[in-house]
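WARN no homologs supplied; continuing
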Amino acid sequence: MNKIYLINETVLFEPERRRLGPASGYPQWAVTLHGPVSECLNLLLERNGEVLSQRFLFTAVWEKQGAVVTTNALYQTIASIRKALKTAGLQENIVQTVPKEGFKSVARIREVSPEEMMTSPTAAALTPPAIQEESKRVKKRIDGTLTVKIAYCLAALLFIGACFVLYSELKRPAPIYAHYHSAGKINGCEILSSLRDNNKSRHLFNALSKRYPLTCAPGGVVYITFNQLQLGTVVLVCDRRIENSQVNCHSIFYSERFQDDE
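OK structure emitted
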């Protein structure tokens, strides 16, 4: 059964469809969330009131898909959740940051069925107040048939405008690896590093290769993230650039931290 959350009696969220929107105009005014944004929100609501550590969220959202991201990407995802909830009409900040621990949801939530959602008082008012008021003013000036047509046109224009604003706020952030620094090629394999010092990156790459052989064929790409979450170093070995839809990668985690001056 499709799970539907009613958050603070104001916003509806469907994890299965990654859909979020105001209860007063659902699903007409709902938007589709980016994958990690939807998954993080779902985990927070499932464990409402519990603190979810950064490590837990990294594992549950990204690493199960074979992806490695930085702490900054996690904070961008949490910020996108807050923006989406606010844009949908939720005034309260239900996603709280717990210093040195993680994040938690402090929402008032309850699960509703599709039937209950469509018959509830909040779902009955499918047209936002601004459009209702505009329709009343138009009816005073022109005949009933033309009024209905204008009301539909206004609703369509506002819907398109709302979708554009939400898309602008929730569009996927640029891949974190786009900001990595090239350290040149070793045996035809391109090295991209989170460090700016190319020589140090090559030196550390060679040091890592001695600890655990890194097999990267000519034309492949290695992405190195030093001191990931202050726990160690992550190496992502791919057969081509990660932005390519046909890319194949595998990751290696080194628990030892490397000292750097960045």
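Residues 5-111 form a domain with the Arc Repressor Mutant, subunit A fold (CATH 1.10.10.10).
OK
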